[in-house]
Amino acid sequence: MAVADTTNLAEAFQRAQEESAFWDEHYHEFAQKYPNQFVAIHNNQVVATAPTLGDIVKHLRALGYPIHSTSIRYIPTADQQFIL
User: How many structural domains are present in the chain?
Assistant: First the structure.
């Protein structure tokens, strides 16, 4: 069982690296096209954009995309600040 867990972990890590590389490669393009928007990526394709997280989740559900395997990021403008 430990081997399967290690394999799953390695696969998840590989997917995360590929996803991060995709975002890095396309960030400037997305910043121009979708400023101040949430962007959802599934299988390396933009499948939805929305101004709020709630809206993008609604769009994804309506389109039938699984939330757990869809990458969502917010694309802020350069002058935007967040206080957490």
Answer: 1
